[in-house]
Amino acid sequence: MRVGLVCPYSFDVPGGVQNHVKGLSESLRSSGCEVSVLAPSSVEAALPEYVFPAGRAVPVPYNGSVARLTFGPLSMARTRRWLREGDFDVLHVHEPTTPSLSLLALWAAEVRTVATFHTATVRSRAMAASVGVLRPALEKISARITVSEPARATLTAHLGADSVLIPNGVFVDRFATATPDPELAQGNGTVVFLGRFDEPRKGLNLLLTAFVDIAETRPGVRLLVAGRGEVEAARRLIPPRHRQAVRFLGVVDDATRARLLASADVFVAPNTGGESCGLVLLEAMAAGAPVVASDIEAFELVCEYGRLGALFPNGEPAGLACAVLSALAGDPARARARAAQVAVRRYDWATVTRRILQVYETVVSEPRNRAGA
After folding, report:
1. According to the model, what pLDDT value does residue 372 have?
2. CA–CA distance from 156 to each of 92, 153, 372 (Å)?
3. Cβ proximity of 109 and 76 under 8 Å
4. Closest C-alpha to 306, from 341, 270, 336
């Protein structure tokens, strides 16, 4: 089967949708599919051979983050060329309501189309205002996938459409077999944060506030921070007496990411909102790290309301500190981590890809007049 995947966000910048498209591409290719990905990127980016660059990405504030998108005549021309040369059996667009390549591909498509919706937000003014304009393009979609219950609720609220729920995937064994890094697993407990900490909704500021109490209560504990952000600005939030206990690792590659999570005595996700699934929680669980997460809906679902990871009240540093100290203390956290390593298998890319392929096969078997092509 020839599959065309469209990623609306810059492929060379880490992000949930980009990681999903990368993982799905790899898994589909392992399943014997021919896969091509259309995506924006920076000019100097080294892209996988299966990625067709559609133009330079432009940063745009979106959903509490900064999305790097591309749009315009040049991108449309490249999109039409990619569709023509690809001769795909199925076109699979991600985030089709975002003003980027997925929408351009929908406008140009004359092939059966599947769409995955990732966004989870209570109310999107942009999406609500654009529904009328987007309707003709969205009517080309033969099947809709959402990655979580919050994403499904967002789709229903804004577009009045239903979907099949297929979660984000994770290559479980890559994390389950990762070995701890002795240099990282030092001190009286290792706490790990992984994410774009230049975005307030990722919650690093909250964790740094809580870390003062954690470090005062448990001398020798260390905090490792991996991801993109302004290190000096973050460091200034840490009292001088605790700065040596916080190490900023920068953006890490996939192998280092797995070793980092395997080295964690506690993985913390202090995100305050705007999350659809919680892929990073799944990776931490696969690596065997006890998880502490804010009680936002997406994280509650992944943690099964406390069975697979400890939850603390969103936005409360005292509750965060208490949950981390409790996790560092012992057995209940380790028991949850063991249960999580078993449960996370249902998110493995092999399982997720089989379900997505079933959607593709259903769409391909439809008569043309029902497939939007």
Report:
1. 47
2. 20, 5, 20
3. no
4. 336
Q: Which residues of 22-43 are buried (b: 16+ CB within 10 A; e: fewer)?
A: bbbbbbbeebebebbbbbbbee
Task: Match 């509750």 to its residue by tokens.
Answer: 319
As a whole number of angstroms, the distance between CA 236 and CA 225 comes to 14
Cα 83 to Cα 74: distance, rounded to the nearest angstrom: 14
Q: Distance (Å, rounded) from C-alpha 70 to C-alpha 52?
A: 13
Extract the tokens encoding 340: 């999580």
Over the stretch 184-234, which tens digit does the pLDDT of each residue have?
Answer: 988 899 999 999 898 899 999 999 999 999 999 999 999 999 999 999 999
Q: Which domains does the chain have, with CATH numbers?
A: 2-169+348-370 (3.40.50.2000), 172-346 (3.40.50.2000)
- Quickly count: other Cβ atoms within 10 Å of residue 93's Cβ: 28
Helices (H), 31-168: 73-86, 101-108, 125-138, 149-159
CA distance 77 to 81: 6
Tell me what pLDDT residue 61 has.
Answer: 61
Distance in angstroms (rounded) separating the CA atoms of residues 159 and 14:
28
pLDDT tens-digit profile of 304-315?
999 999 999 999
Residue type, 319: G
Q: In angstroms, rounded to a whole number, what is the distance separating the alpha carbons of residues 337 and 355?
A: 26
Question: pLDDT tens digits, residue range 239-278?
Answer: 999 999 999 999 999 999 999 999 999 999 999 998 888 8
